[in-house]
Amino acid sequence: MRTEIGKVRLYVSPAVEDAYSRIRLLETQAALAGEHLRLVHAYLVQVSPQERAHRPYPRGRVLDTLLEAGHHLQEASLLTSLGASDTLRAATDFAGALRAQKLIDGRPQAMSPTQYQALRAIATGRLSVEDTGGREWAWMRDASFSIATVRSLESRGWVRREAHHPWPGARTARLYLTEAGRIALASWLGRVPVASRPAALATRASRTPVR
Question: Cα separations (Å) of 95 from 33, 88, 126, 159?
Fold first, then answer.
């Protein structure tokens, strides 16, 4: 990434410095998470599938080994839990800096503010689709999206689904950006969709006489 940024002679502003720091931190976290996952594997190979099949586990070697594996898995999950959102933040900072220094140009792709927010949510891994008895609905931890928004993104080839079964019987699909979806989102990074700007409010304020 540093090599590519160097090719466009980007001035290292405070925002760019912050983005660099964020990427370096993500690199360190990913390396630490990898070490924890290697330990998870090392513990799990000590327990045969037959031993893992007998639940509840009695006190002893099997239970202690699986608890240790679970501990390292939690540590890896904690280290990577904000990785996608931090990466998107760094990309947004870089895009804003590139546009401010007139190093990139191009029209942003047409989309509604809701579609833009949905693309950002998908990029950070926070939006999924649940199927309950043949009825689909979009699920997110801290916001709600209409399933119609998801389908509109799919119809444009910006989003794909991948089955995800966190527990037996679950009918969940994780959403991912396609290459076209990443390009569409990137065209708006560092900007605000025009339709979401309070233009009417700004116009009204400009016409208010000063007393």
Answer: 28, 10, 22, 22
Amino acid at 25: L
CA–CA gap between residue 177 and residue 93 (Å, rounded):
20
CB-count burial class (<10 Å; 0-12, 13-18, 19+) for 111: buried
Cα–Cα nearest to 100, from 19, 22, 12, 21: 12
Ordered DSSP codes for 154-182: HHTT-EEEEEE-SSTT--EEEEEE-HHHH
d(Cα 167, Cα 171) in Å, to the nearest integer? 9
Q: Are 160 and 176 in contact (CB under 8 A)?
A: yes
- The amino acid at residue 40 is V
- Which residues fall within 8 angstroms of residue 125, CB to CB, at 6 or more apart? 84, 174
Output the pTM of the full model: 0.75
CA 171, CA 159: separation in Å to the nearest integer?
18
Q: Give the Cα separation of 43 and 37 in Å (integer).
A: 10
Distance CA 149, CA 162 (A): 17
| Structure confidence by residue, pLDDT tens digits, 10-68 | 888 888 888 888 888 999 999 999 999 999 999 999 999 888 888 888 889 999 999 99
Q: Is the distance from CB of 118 to CB of 149 less than 8 angstroms?
A: yes
